[in-house]
Structure formats: structure tokens, C-alpha cells
Amino acid sequence: MKQDVLIRAEQLYRYYGENCAVKGVSFDVRRGEVLGFLGPNGAGKSTTMQMLTGNLAPSSGQVWINGLDLLDRPKQAKRGLGYLPEAPPLYRELTVKEYLAFCARLNYIPRNQQTKAIASAVERCGLKEVTKRLIGNLSKGYQQRVGIAQAIIHSPSVIILDEPTVGLDPIQIREIRELIRELAQEHSVILSTHILPEVQTICDRVQIINQGELVLTDTIAGLSQRMESTSVLVRFDNPPATEVLMSLRGVENVASQGDGRIRLRYRPEQDPVDELVRRAVNENWRLRELTPERRTLEEIFVSITQTEDQQEAAA
Ligand SMILES: Nc1ncnc2c1ncn2[C@@H]1O[C@H](COP(=O)(O)OP(=O)(O)OP(=O)(O)O)[C@@H](O)[C@H]1O
Fold it and tell me: Domain named ABC transporter: which ranges (predicted)?
């Protein structure tokens, strides 16, 4: 396995009784990468995260962490991993410091290095002011920071965060995202989420899972490209016939919007705007408006994760 692949999942399957929740999921996470694992509720994100962290046995398939087979050598393999589950395992009756000391022991950090490891996690997660407070009395945002601190206390090469901002208020969300970005400078991160902007703002690469299957893997730059315009809204005082617009190179669909505007959809590699403007001038269509439309990430997500019937029902 190449040195810079920190996690490799190969053909992971997981059944719950008859229900196949994860179907043949394979991917790599490389050093320095922030991978967004995106999918609607029930898509199989948590099940996959639990298999990657050794908390749930796959029905079949394999996971390697830093080249170590997770099923064959679970103890050694897990040392390279930090995990923040959807419901972090916090002890509300302990102080932050007591809890992190407990986590340091759980992660087999040698006794003479524990104080340093705790101080570093406290510093990096912005917990300095609250080390003596009971976890149960902290705000949800601070509790999430404590959850992240326990995930990084043993300096793992990969951190897996399952829905880290769910239930937080907008300011806390912004702070936790900022913290994740900082952590990403030293660790590879897998971020499982159903929140699209989270992926856009934090990740380098995204994978979309739907009904247990990976349906898209792309870089954030590639995703931005998919969002580029493939339609344009136009309005003419002297509109040509629909057939004329249909005959423009690249145009696939012409739809009147009822307010005098017309939407032209075209193939991504064949932008018809230059020809349209030229002909509008030459043939006196009296062009009054021309607005390129961008697909939102949300639309791409819906088009990938819903069937045509579902999209029509939602429209
Ligand atoms: N312990 C379980 N027993 C039976 N079915 C389960 C169990 N855990 C999950 N499932 C089912 O497996 C499928 C995938 O669930 P999973 O929790 O992995 O999805 P998810 O993408 O993490 O969704 P969410 O964001 O809602 O947590 C769902 O159909 C769910 O009902």
C-alpha cells in the first residue's frame, strides 16, 4: 500500500438483518486530506464510520489504517485513529481535566507523557478556561470541543468526526468548523455530515453516499465545476420561434417561464451564448435580459440522491 494512504476501505458491506445498510463501499484517505462523507439521513454514514473505527464489524470487506489490517491487528491499527462519534462518550460528572486524563490512559499514552498530551489537547481545542468545570455544566459547543479533544489526545494521524456540528447554534458551528480546519493542518480528517456548506467550506474532497452506496467522489474544485452554468434565462422584446432557439448549437431544452422570460438549457461543453447574442443582434430579436444560472450544490445533491420520480414530486 502506498505510504501516503492512511485509511483504505475495500468493499465494505454491512447488513442489519435483511437490510443492507452499506453496499460495497471502497475509498482511500491520504495524508493531509479532509474528506467529506456526505449523505442524507439513513444513507449509511454512521455505519461506515463505525466500521472504519473498529466499533462495528463489517459483514464483509476490509479496512487498513496506516497499512495495518483493522480486523487482524485492531489494537495497533486503532492507535492511528481518533473518533468523535455522533453521540460523544462524555462523562458529565467528571471535570474536563479528569475526563481527558481518563482518555489518555485509555489510549495507552505512557504515564510520563500524559500531562503533556492533555495540555496539548486542551490548548488546541480552546479548553483552557474550562479544565476544572464539570462536563455536564458546559455548553453543547464546549462539550463538542471536549469530544474532539478526546479524539486527538493520542495524536492520531486520522480523525473521524461524525456529524460534529449537529445541535450547535450558528456561532458554535462556526467555531467548531474553524477548529476542524486548524486540526486539518496536522491530521487527515474524515468528516461525516448531511450539511452541504460544511463540506464546501472545510473539505478537499467529497464522497456522496446514498442508500448505502457511494454515488459520487470528486474534489471540491470538481464539484464547483459541476455547479457551473448549464442554463441561461433570456428575455426578448421580439422573441424568435422556439424552434429557432432549439436550433442554437448545444441547446437541449427551451422553456417559457410565463413572465416573458425563456430558460435555455444546454450541454455543459457547448455554451450557446455567443451565437445567441450574435443572432439576436443580426435578426433583431431585441434582447433585454440574459442571466446565466448556476446550479447550487443542493441541486446537484438532490439530482444525485433522488430518483426522477422523487424530484418531480418535490418540484
Ligand atoms: N443498529 C441498527 N440496527 C438496525 N438497523 C440499523 C442500525 N443502525 C442503522 N440501521 C439502519 O441502517 C441504515 C443506515 O443507517 P446509518 O445510521 O448508518 O445512516 P446515516 O447516514 O448515519 O444516517 P443519520 O444521519 O440519520 O445518522 C438506516 O436504514 C438505518 O435505519
Answer: 7-236
ipTM value: 0.96
For residue 261, what are the domain limits?
Answer: 230-294
Kindly state if the Cβ of 108 falls inside 6 Å of ligand 1: no
Ligand 1 pocket mutation pick from 47, 193, 215 by most atoms within 8 angstroms of CB = 47
Q: List alpha helices for the chain, DSSP H.
A: 45-52, 74-78, 96-106, 111-124, 140-152, 170-183, 196-202, 220-226, 242-246, 273-282, 297-305, 308-314
Looking at the fold, whether 106 and 41 belong to one and the same domain comes out as: yes
CATH number for the domain that contains residue 283: 3.30.70
Name the residue of 13, 14, 18, 45 whose CB sits within 8 Å of the most ligand 1 atoms, as the mutation to test its pocket.
45
pLDDT tens-place string over residues 93-132? 999 999 999 999 999 899 999 999 999 999 989 999 999 9
- 205 to each of 28, 56, 80, 291, 302, how far by Cα in Å? 11, 25, 21, 30, 18
Query: Cα torsion for 202, 208, 209, 215, to the nearest 10°?
Result: -160
Does 267 lie in the same domain as 150?
A: no
